[in-house]
Design goal:
The complex is a heterodimer of chains A (about 550) and B (about 160). With about 550 residues, chain A is α/β, with parallel strands linked by helices. Chain A has helices at about 5-15, 30-35, 50-65, 75-80, 80-90, 115-120, 135-150, 160-165, 185-200, 210, 215-225, 255-265, 280, 315-325, 335-350, 355-370, 380-390, 410-420, 435-440, 440-450, 465-475, 490-495, 510-520; strands at about 20-25, 40-45, 65-70, 95-100, 125-130, 155-160, 200-205, 230, 245-250, 270, 290-295, 310-315, 375-380, 425-430, 455-460, 500-505, 525-530. Chain B has 2 domains: about 5-80, Alpha-Beta Plaits, CATH 3.30.70.260; about 85-155, Alpha-Beta Plaits. Chain B has helices at about 20-25, 60-70, 100-110, 130-140, and strands at about 5-15, 35-40, 45-55, 75-80, 85-95, 115-120, 120-130, 145-150, 155-160. Classes of the chains: A alpha/beta (about 550), B alpha+beta (about 160). The complex binds thiamine diphosphate.
Chain lengths: ~550, ~160
């Protein structure tokens, strides 16, 4: 066979280290799908393009590599949009490849022609429209380079069908890129170190950027040496193993009261890889009112975006911490740590079950039944907050969650990507009934590839989080949040070829959990919980992080 | 924070889509672009975009960082308050009457405008000046009944080659 554009695509992907792509064909991708059989790259046929994007995203979150998804022009490309936006908001490195109609049809409203570059402009780091077959390899290489460096994120490459099928010669090999720049402004690091050494009540905030920048080990080392307590954002959970009472939990609307209250009293905050979104800070003017704020981030636009910072360093978090660690003078801040201990005891006495009720107990039992290295993938809603509050993450890539976008339907397809990226680890989905419906078709992908993914649907018959908000802040008017109980989800799962059973959380679910944990292949557990099993504490809309409430 | 008019100039790769990415950065943050001028530089692969927008004083820093992230942007410069020559070109057409003819022609001369087309009862003039002056000139001619007006928006060049 003569070499065509499609071969160049596959060759370049292989050169970039791609082993797996998640996709869905259409007439315009066919030149590419047609050549897949020959190469080393495995293509997983999803049942919806949105799921292909989430799977690539889950793959990237589980492995740290760039995830790749592939869709056809028109509806295939637009179906990717939610998945691309989800990756963008959480800075997941992703390359989305879309086929486009033949270049001589552009601008003629041809069948399945959409301006996907225009549509995705605000949710991609960059995009390439390949106009000439000789630019294929270089565009793809640049896409990988951009997706995986700086603040990582999704990049889209749109390739017309005629370019995929155009005969062409081999394209020049990859030129090694220059090594990334090293610390440029040591004096900024020195200033941060001095302020930290002087501080009496310091706290570190660990954001998602610490994982993304592969800086977890450095961050642990830093915490240990400096003897400083830390909080995380939701995206930062699991970055640093909980040690010696330094981990105060996560901040924000659904976070831990201990974390929120400690930040409020701090006189110095070192923020690592977080943009201070309003989910974390609530009312920004009332966030950390006493603190000098130092921010370290790879992304210049994240520095000072939402909060006024006193000290800043722009660059790789790893490099910054490497430079910072030797400058830190370990100090026992007995008064500060004592205050935190008192506060911790107070909070623990107040919230006996961690604020998650029976659902929390269920999740604790599931974790206990699964191996330590299990990856948990919550969906969005109460189930997500129950999971992030309850599941003890022991390592950085064990909790994969849609934080910035809060995309319902993320969990099942993202788990597919995670399982394929980390085949040696167990993967558990924890999902609400609402979110389960949103990508339910992916049960077919799981069963056809026999992916041993465990799915727990916590069924409350409602859009639980919406119900809680209505209950607390809309005078209990429960409009449009009831899903009802007419569907037998276990029968649905079985119909897809996945063994399933139903349990009630207030009866003992331990045996069912054990059956799920020991199942060879995929398994679905439908756990029935009370519709009034909410999550507490919570911050009412418009209130500050100090105003968490624990009930109606 | 004080709101003022800002002039930003950037060098960009001369490629389709670049302008819409730049426009997207402004629009998604709620900034209105007041004037915009795009043209090729001496290097046909590079264009210069000069635009103005009314915004707070921390605008440039925030927007500049966002613009700097765009792959096709080579450099971003803020001309606001800098030692630079700023100019825009304005064309004004007027209806002439026997009563106003003399006064209009005298004013054109005084302001240093140029007549680029003229007939018995009609005239088009051209003005090149900084924005304050073009605005003043327009205000002067408005009572005579400006038929049509069009202008390019500001372009700017630093007075001296800057270091770095
Ligand atoms: C795609 C999408 N649509 C709507 C929402 C808004 N939303 C957030 S939580 C939620 C309810 C989720 O219900 P369910 O999946 O049953 O989970 P539960 O809260 O009951 O655990 C909704 C509708 C969303 N986050 N994502």
């Amino acid at each position: 066979m003569n070499t065509i554009g499609a071969d160049i695509v596959l060759k370049t992907l292989a050169e970039e280290g791609v082993e797996v792509i998640f996709g869905y064909p259409g007439a315009n991708t066919l030149p590419l799908h047609d050549r897949l059989a020959e190469g080393p790259i495995r293509h997983y046929l999803m049942r919806h393009e949105q799921a292909a994007a989430h799977a690539a995203d889950g793959y990237a979150r589980a492995t740290g590599k760039v995830g790749v998804c592939l869709a056809t022009s028109g509806p295939g490309a637009t179906n990717l949009v939610t998945g691309i936006a989800t990756a963008y908001m959480d800075s997941t490195p992703l390359v989305a490849i879309t086929a486009q109609v033949d270049s001589d049809l552009w601008g003629r409203d041809a069948f399945q022609e959409t301006d996907i570059i225009g549509i995705t402009m605000p949710i991609t780091k960059h995009s390439f429209m390949v106009r000439d077959v000789t630019q294929l390899a270089s565009s793809l290489r640049q896409a990988f380079q951009l997706a995986s460096t700086g603040r990582t994120g999704p990049v889209l490459v749109d390739i017309p069908k005629d370019i995929l099928s155009a005969p062409c010669g081999d394209q020049p090999k990859k030129i090694p890129t220059a090594p990334p720049k090293r610390i440029e402004h040591p004096e900024q690091i020195e200033r941060i170190a001095q302020a930290l050494n002087r501080s009496e009540r310091p706290v570190i905030i660990i954001g998602g950027g610490v994982k993304l920048g592969d800086a977890c080990e450095r961050a642990s080392e830093f915490v240990q040496k400096a003897q400083i307590p830390f909080v995380t954002t939701m995206m930062g959970i699991g970055s640093v193993a909980s040690a010696n009472g330094f981990n105060l939990g996560f901040i924000g609307m659904h976070g831990n009261e201990l974390a929120n209250r400690t930040i409020h009293q701090a006189d110095f905050i070192l923020a690592l890889g977080t943009r201070f979104t309003e989910r974390s800070t609530s009312v920004i003017e009332e966030f950390a009112p006493l603190a000098t704020v130092a921010q370290i981030d790879i992304d210049a636009t994240s520095i000072g975006k939402n909060i006024k910072v006193d000290l800043a360093y722009e660059g790789e978090i790893q490099d910054a911490l490497t430079a910072l660690i030797p400058l830190i003078v370990p100090r026992e801040r007995e008064g500060w740590m004592g205050r935190i201990r008192v506060e911790r005891d107070l909070q623990e006495a107040k919230l006996k079950d961690g604020g998650c009720g029976q659902a929390g107990n269920l999740i604790r039992k599931i974790q206990a039944a699964m191996p330590r290295e299990t990856i948990v993938v919550p969906d969005v809603g109460l189930n997500q907050i129950w999971t992030v509050r309850t599941w003890q993450s022991h390592s950085p890539r064990s909790l994969l969650t849609s934080g910035g976008m809060g995309t319902m339907g993320f969990s099942v397809p993202a788990a597919i990507g995670a399982k394929l990226g980390a085949p040696d680890r167990d993967v558990v989905v924890i999902c609400g009934d609402g979110g389960f419906y949103m990508n339910i078709q992916e049960l077919a992908t799981i069963s056809s590839y026999r992916l041993p993914i465990k799915i727990v649907v916590i069924n409350n018959g409602h859009l639980g989080m919406i119900r809680q908000i209505q209950d607390l802040f809309y005078e209990s008017r429960f409009t449009t949040s009831e899903l009802g109980e007419t569907v037998d989800l276990t029968a649905v799962a079985k119909g897809f070829g996945i063994p399933a059973e139903r349990v009630a959380v207030d009866e003992d679910p331990a045996e069912a959990i054990a059956r799920m944990a020991s199942a060879e292949g995929p398994y679905m557990l439908e756990a029935m919980v009370d519709q009034n099993n909410y999550v507490y504490p919570i911050i009412p809309p418009g209130a500050s992080n100090m105003e968490m409430i624990c009930g109606k | 924070m004080a709101i003022e008019e800002r002039t930003i100039s950037m060098l960009v790769n001369n490629q389709p889509g670049v302008l819409s990415r730049i426009a997207g950065i402004f629009s998604s943050r709620g900034y209105n672009i007041r004037s915009l001028c795009v043209a090729e530089t001496t290097n046909p692969e590079v264009s210069r975009i000069t635009l103005t927008s009314r915004a707070e004083s921390d605008f440039t820093e925030k927007i500049k960082k966002q613009l700097d992230k765009l792959v096709d942007i080579i450099s971003v410069t803020d001309f606001t308050g800098a030692p630079a020559v700023q100019r825009e070109l304005m064309l004004i057409s007027l209806r002439l009457t026997p009563e106003n003819r003399r006064e209009i022609l005298r004013a054109i001369d005084l302001f240093g405008c140029r007549v680029v087309a003229m007939s018995e009862d009609y005239l088009i003039m051209e003005i090149t000046a900084n924005k304050d002056k073009t605005a003043a000139i327009l205000r002067y001619f408005e009572p005579f009944g400006v038929e049509e007006m069009n202008r390019t928006g500001a372009i700017a060049v630093f007075r001296q080659k800057r270091e770095g």
